[in-house]
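user: can you give me the structure for this one chain? tokens are fine.
assistant: on it. calling the predictor now.
[tool input]
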Amino acid sequence: MNIFNRALGTLFSVVLVVGGLSAFFLTLAAPNETTSYVQSWALYLSDQVTFGNRLAVGLGAAIATIAGVLIFLLEAPRRSSTTVQLKKVTGGEGILSIGAIAQRVQHDIELLGGVRRAKPLVIGRGKRVDIRVDLTTDPYVEAAPKTQEVCQVIRDNVEAQMGVRVRRISVRITHDTIPNGAPSRHTPDAV
């Protein structure tokens, strides 16, 4: 869904930029050609082509162009650095690669009970990192406690042991499929 939203936002910004620049050019740079084109489509608009209206359309086109450029810039993918600065180093500066952090996070999370696979995405933010983990667990693992446990393991290992500040952690849990013919899980409330 995120890729679709980015594509839609990018397409919308391109349409705004192209449409805004076209309207700007046609109304302010070539008012006579614009007038004849508009008159061929609808004669009643010829009375509306005044300096004030051309100015209003030109301002609207300029606003649409600026809005399109801003949306395009906001939707452009942000570059992530490949390294992050360590927070506690005496007498110098320490830098750690994003790949090393991702490898450590994956290893530490996959050691937890009930976790089948972990796929971390680490994004460097200067001296801090954002970590998103796509987690596949056993079918009956409870999501909330497992999420809390994963977040705690990440903070303990990345911040305390590796010396990198963690800004945000996002955990996406997917349960593995229940095999056919597996016995149903009984809950204490079931009669």
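assistant: here you go. The helical segments are 2-29, 31-41, 51-75, 98-110, 143-161. The first helix runs from residue 2 to 29.
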